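Why do we care about 3D structure at all? Because function follows from shape, and shape follows, mostly, from sequence. That is the central idea of this module. The next example makes it concrete: a single protein chain, its amino acid sequence, and then its structure expressed as tokens.
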Amino acid sequence: MTDVLAIVSRAVFEKDARAPSGKLLGVGDVWPLDRYNSSHKTFERVRGGGRIFLVTVRPDERLWFLGVVDAPSFTGSSWVAAKKNAFAITDITALRKTIQFESGKGMSQDKGTLGMSLQTPRALAKGDVAQILALAGGAPAPAPGPPPAALGAPSAPKAARVIGGKYELVREIGHGGMGVVHEAIHTGTGRRVAVKEILGDELREREQLVERFHREARAMGAIETDHIAHALDAGTDEATGHPFLVLELLRGEDLQALLARTGPLAEPVAVRIVAQACKALARAHEAGVVHRDIKPANVFLARRDGGDVVVKLLDFGIARVREGLAATDNRALTTTGLLLGSPLYMSPEQVLKPKDVDARTDLWSLGVVLWETLAGRTPWSEALETVGALFVTICGKPAPSVRELAPAASDAVAAVATKALEIDLAKRYASAEAMLADLAALAPGGFALDESMLVGAPRPAPDLAFAATESQTKR
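And the structure:
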């Protein structure tokens, strides 16, 4: 038996989760539900005593645990428990980064994508269940198993692990869909590096992900620019059979983290960040590489001694490379049933014809990044709860002017964002160089950045702040 996490849509929650008085239930209230309507095959795994853990995503992207459908039976259209839920609604947003699921893949960390990423029910790991129940309080005991490290349980010291015979792991610095990223030390030179490793389950279940991993190494090695993280080494660890990629270890933060910390950035700073990213794309496209996953989380602001900041593009794991760099056919890697890219930043052609995209798809995504850096959210961050609804909007509705949410933005920068987000490819920027030329006109002093610039944009006057707030739909 297995415990499965399933989402209750915002619309269903706000319609059905009501007190007798009609008031919407909130944190601390008990919603006495006893069923979940779905015939998805994943729920077959709860037969024989498993549980369905129900969550919902609130408009501010907080994650609420709603309760449990305990040991349900299938009626043909619903999974129904013998007794009603007794758990109180609990805010479990703090677990968004620690829940990893049975597959080892965590929840989406991209802004505005949490609800969409949970549309498919997913089996929970024992540690995930323990974390949720620990926050819910007064809950039945979690399934047997050791408590997870996330709960602070002491663990015995472990001998340092070495990957590839020469990279001694120091600590984990990131965890994503393909595996884990470690800080490591080269045992021969003492140099500190980042080591990206695919974990075992991915190797067994999706061999094509391994090819994407190797193509990331080839793509990054083919591009000569200071605006892409340098690939230093690649191989397969003999002890585990896990492929690994060694990259320069960067100090700083990604643009997503910066925007979460500061909010929208001043126009001169936004232009410099996007222009440096555009320089990276120009060199990548020249080398025959299309990134296909440009988003704030992959735009890294690397801090250097002296306070200078250099923008570096990360994660070429789903890049399309010219055939001379590819070990297998490019198109074969787009027919796996996996969604390639991050929905909020995907171009119309990436949605409709992912096998046929060219460099202009990256310019669309960079246009979304520019829009978000100026406005604090993407053009499509309104209440779109499904990937399908989002894709319909991206493919059929022109993006609004960024000045609707960022009235202080100049007409010139708004024009750059609008041209980058043209649905008609013939009207969009034809090349990264063309987009960079327009950005250069907005930054006559150049694109250099330093740490003192990485602060939020000045707040507009009260009347403008009110107007901007009224014109947007809250996330």
